[in-house]
Amino acid sequence: MNEENKSPEQAPETEVIEATPAIPAGMFGALLESKGISAEHLGNDAKGTEIIRLTAEAILKAGELLKGDASSKLDMLLLVTGIDWKTHRESVYHLYSTVHYHSLIIKIVADANDTSPSLYPVWPAADWHEREAYDLMGIHYEGHPDLRRILMPTYWLGHPLRKDYKEEDPRLVWNRR
Amino acid sequence: MMSVKELNPELQSNLPGVSIEAGFDTNDLVVNIGPQHPSTHGVLRLVTTLNGEVVKEMEPVIGYLHRSKEKMGESRSLFQYQPTIDRVEYLSSFYDHLVFVNCIEQIADIPVPKRVEYIRVICLELNRITSHLLWFGTFLLDLGASTPFFWCFRDREEVFTIFENLTGARMMYNYFRFGGVNNDLPAGWLEEVRAFCNHFPDRLDEYEAVATKNPILMDRTKGHGIMTKEFCLKYGVTGPALRATGEALDLRKTNPYSVYNELDFDVPTHTGCDTYARYLVRVQEMRESIKIIKQCIDKIPGGDGGALAILKKEVEAKTKEAKKNPEIVVPHWDKDWDTMGKKINLLTYKPPAGEASNFVESPRGVLGCYIITDGTPKAYRIKWRGASFSNLSALPELMKGHMYSDLMAIFGSLDVIMPEVDR
Predict the structure, then answer these.
(1) Nearest-CA distance from A15 to chain B in Å?
(2) How far is B93 from chain A (nearest CA, A)?
């Protein structure tokens, strides 16, 4: 009897979630703009995923909105990476929705000191990914609870994925010659 | 000092005769598990703080297998880089190639013939079976059952022979190309695959008869390592671990790539959320893969490679003759039967500037590749998203409050593979 009673209760709940229509493709920037958050629309990548650029001030607010809003529901962080554009560094976040099955790419330019706000408070999955971006690209994520090297040894000098990286560690044998 | 009761309130019933309220009168013990440990499937070090036999804290130390795959991608041309990406995740290396090749295909807008897509899907699903078989064998080996390990390797060998006949390699295939595959199917290859598909489900029944209802397996897995959907989302856990929470997230179904939208298959899910549920989901996935492969064999445009190769030679010869003598009739050749969508000289190939990100459902979860090209033969930036990387990051919280002896059962159920974590 209990099971029979439960099933009709559960059914409408799932229907309600599905009934919220997904945001049309390429409209994430417009959604943020409508809530008063400035987002720069950078077009789509080759697969058709929308790319937006957000400012460091707006990112946490925008993140909460994108994660919580019923039409976007971007609840899963797939990957975080850094890109070295030689003049500046940039963080890239790939987000995915397990409700609407759509995705979004967010880019944030790190400032002159290579600092960028951490998205750990919004998506805890950013923990290891941001540590990796810090380790290999040298972007410092402000607000990250435990920003340490993850792949390279703790004593490593420099950040290997930077374009100007040279292996000049004096402890290496070939650099002593 | 924390008492065991605080760490795990449910533990009391499992330990009859031990007064948990009083706490153990010992100090915390730090144990280094790994880097060389037979059950860590690679080189993983787990710095574990134990309170008695209960895991209090755990910190995975990774990076022992870091081979700088991303730096390698930036420092050599795509053609030179391609053979090395098999090693990103060596147990299912067709998937690495698929994401990589798909990214360049999308950036350069290279068409992919239908036949190629079907060949790729057959390879991918066979690869999923070999990967899950290795997991099945080693997972049970971790739990103390050594016989299934040899059975699984016997079946893996059969699939590897099939792969060897197609690609020339047993594990590092390097078979997919931009807009195609390296070579067409050899004569009779599809029959080999069909023969495997016909007898493999019976073997799987046999393995399941030994393992699935085994009381030791059930005791050690049921109710252990509970991962809820919220927990999975928090850490970005994907793949069978997420599907074992009842969430039917499978990119083959939700965001179909290749020809998966033309194929009929189910996404196995379970609502158990525990180690046993993850076991059941993976076993069921092997059966679904067989279902997909059988459909592909029936649907593949052009059919078996042998007859098609003869036809292709005839078409090529007749087209040459037809230029001189217009009366000669060239046999029909469908564009879907090609093995390359566009002729590319890989040695000098320069993709246009652009960026693409691709995510596919690998045996371990969402495998992704993010490529930025700048018009040179090298990629400007290549980033790999290994499913194991995110799945492993959930382990410390997952293990908190569990017995030390459950570690390898729970860790094994995540199916983490270290080369994919460290890349």
Answers:
(1) 15
(2) 20
Report the half-sphere exposure of A93 (CA within 13 A, side-chain side): 32
pLDDT band at A1 (very low <50, low <70, confident <90, very high): very low
* Segment 89-118 of chain A within 8 Å of chain B by CB: 92, 94, 96, 98, 101, 103, 105
CB proximity under 8 Å: A 30-69 to B? 45-47, 49
Rounded alpha-carbon distances, angstroms, from residue A147 to A19, A61, A81, A126, B320: 40, 22, 15, 11, 65
Task: Sketch the domain layout of chain B as residue ranges.
Answer: 69-307+336-422
- What chain A holds in terms of domains, given with CATH numbers, is 2-151 (3.30.460.80)
The pLDDT value recorded for residue B50 is 85
Q: What angle do CA B159, B163, B167 make, to 5 degrees?
A: 175
Q: Which of A83, A98, A151 sits opposite B63 (nearest CB)?
A: A151
Q: For residues B278 and B246, what is the distance between their CA atoms, to the nearest angstrom?
A: 11
Q: Does B103 touch chain A (CB under 8 A)?
A: yes
Within an 8 Å CB–CB cutoff, is residue A136 touching chain B?
yes
Using alpha carbons only, what angle is made at residue A96 by residues A90 and A101, rounded to the nearest 5 degrees? 150
pLDDT for B301: 87
Q: Which residues of A touch B236 (CB under 8 A)?
A: 76-78, 123, 125
Residue A19 has pLDDT above 80, yes or no: no
CB-based contact B234 A124, cutoff 8 Å: yes
- Cα separation of A80 and B166, whole Å? 36
How would residue B18 be classed by pLDDT, with cut points 50, 70 and 90? very low
| Mean pLDDT computed over every residue of chain B | 85
- Digit-coded pLDDT (tens) for B277-328: 999 999 999 999 999 999 999 988 888 887 888 888 888 888 888 888 878 7
Interface residue A81 vs chain B (CB under 8 A): yes
pLDDT the model gives residue A8 = 43
pLDDT digits 0-9 by tens, A35-63? 777 777 787 887 878 888 888 888 888 88
For residue B269, give both structure tokens.
């899910």
Chain B partners within 8 Å of A137 (Cβ)? none
A76 pLDDT more than 70: yes
Q: Closest CB to B63: pick one of A83, A92, A150.
A: A150
Question: Is A122 in the B-facing interface, judged by CB distances under 8 Å?
Answer: no
Which residues in chain A have Cβ-Cβ distances shorter than 8 Å to B382? none
CATH code, B69-307+336-422:
1.10.645.10
pLDDT digits (tens, 9 = 90+) for B369-405: 999 998 888 889 999 998 889 889 988 888 888 888 8
Question: Out of A49, A94, A128, whose CB is closest to B389?
Answer: A128
Q: Out of A2-11, B39-48, B234-243, B256-265, pick the least confident.
A: A2-11
CA distances to B44, B149, B327 from B34, rounded to whole Å, are: 6, 22, 74
Please tell me the distance from the alpha carbon of residue B83 to that of residue B81, in angstroms, as a whole number: 6
Residues 6+ apart with CB under 8 A from B66: A151, A152, B422, B423
Q: How far is CA B283 from the centre of its chain?
A: 14
Beta bridge partners of B60: B46
Torsion of CA B240, B244, B247, B249, to 10 degrees: 10
